[in-house]
């Protein structure tokens, strides 16, 4: 069996950087075992598999090189950009069924993709004394920062505020993070450094998810959705531009926003641009 695998870079900045995702269209007849094999061969942080659905526009499943996950932000953006680029869909709103739920995606005429995420859930809190050693830092470094919390807008990420000037120099212990995430049912660690209010970039981010085969990721849409909710909770901010991937040489741009009704978040959206990189044939 020959499978067409598209490679798309999601959350690009001026057509550079971003995070590579694999995309397989017309995947209705593929088993989960076959999808996992393709994702392992592709070796991107996530590969999205697109199928038909009787109630919504598409059903989509997401696989890392080692496991299926409920949702992936950058692969969703890559997928809908590809559908737009291939002329399969045009500008407008669509719905995808994922294991995280039915979520809407909107395309603009310039190919920008804005995707809905699930409403935030705060799942756990951890102390600086538990987390600092996993980042190879002393606990004092994380003092006077907002709480360390597990948030999910589709996937559970540990949101960690880092003092200004320290983010790029952190070299985490990936083995310890793997074991911690496995024990606590967390996908990964999402670190951020908040910028000045007048800065073009709301926050710079880094994401580590060794549990699902990702040592570091250059753009993480789901975690940036969770971060947007975290920043509303602690700073009442609602619109964001995030930078990620700088230390990897793959600088990316992600936009995010939260809508609020009666002081509660009523909608979470993450958006960005993408670029088609390659089209390959994989033999199973």
Description:
This protein is of the alpha+beta class. The protein folds into 2 domains: 2-117 and 273-283, Diaminopimelate Epimerase, Chain A, domain 1 (Roll), CATH 3.10.310; 121-272, Roll (Diaminopimelate Epimerase, Chain A, domain 1), CATH 3.10.310.10. Helix content is 19%, strand content 41%. The chain has an 18-stranded mixed beta sheet that branches. Strand 15 (239-244) and strand 16 (252-261) form a beta hairpin. The longest helix has 15 residues, at 221-235.
CATH superfamily of the largest domain: Diaminopimelate Epimerase, Chain A, domain 1
Distance between the termini: 5 Å
Helix content: 10-25%
User: Which fold does the CATH topology of the largest domain refer to?
Assistant: Diaminopimelate Epimerase, Chain A, domain 1
What structural class do helix, strand and pairing data support?
alpha+beta
Number of helices in the DSSP assignment: 5
Ranges where pLDDT stays below 50 over 5 or more residues in a row are none
> What letter string, H or E per element, gives the SSE order?
EEHEEEHEEEEHEEHEEEHEEEE
**CATH class descriptor name of the largest domain:** Alpha Beta
% residues in beta strands: 35-45%
What's the CATH architecture name of the largest domain?
A: Roll
Please count the beta strands (DSSP E, at least 2 residues each). Answer: 18
Overall number of domains: 2
**Shape field:** globular
Biggest sheet record: 18 strands, mixed
Overall pLDDT level: 95
């Amino acid at each position: 069996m020959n499978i067409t695998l598209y490679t798309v870079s999601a959350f690009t900045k001026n057509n550079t950087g971003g995070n590579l995702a694999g995309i397989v269209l017309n995947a209705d007849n593929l088993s989960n075992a076959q999808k996992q094999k393709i994702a392992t061969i592709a070796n991107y942080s996530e590969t999205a598999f697109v199928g038909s659905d009787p109630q919504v526009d598409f059903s989509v499943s997401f696989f890392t090189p080692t496991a299926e996950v409920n949702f992936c932000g950058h692969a969703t953006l890559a997928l809908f950009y590809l559908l737009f680029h291939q002329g399969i869909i045009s500008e407008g709103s669509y719905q995808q069924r994922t294991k995280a739920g039915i979520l809407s995606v909107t395309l603009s005429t310039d190919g920008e993709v804005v995707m809905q995420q699930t409403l935030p859930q705060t799942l756990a809190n951890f102390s600086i004394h538990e987390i600092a050693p996993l980042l190879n830092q002393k606990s004092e470094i994380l003092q006077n920062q907002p709480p360390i919390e597990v948030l999910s807008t589709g996937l559970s990420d540990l949101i960690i505020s880092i003092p200004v000037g320290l983010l790029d120099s952190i070299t985490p212990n990936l083995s310890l993070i793997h074991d911690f995430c496995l024990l606590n049912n967390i996908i990964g660690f999402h670190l951020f450094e908040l910028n000045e209010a007048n800065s073009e970039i709301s926050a710079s981010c880094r994401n580590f998810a060794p549990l699902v085969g990702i040592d570091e990721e250059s753009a993480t849409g789901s975690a940036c959705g969770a971060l947007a909710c975290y920043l509303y909770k602690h700073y009442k901010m609602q619109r964001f531009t995030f930078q990620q991937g700088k230390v990897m040489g793959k600088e990316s741009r992600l936009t995010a926003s939260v809508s609020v009704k009666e002081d509660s978040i009523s909608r979470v959206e993450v958006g960005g641009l993408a670029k088609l990189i390659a089209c390959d044939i994989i033999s199973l």
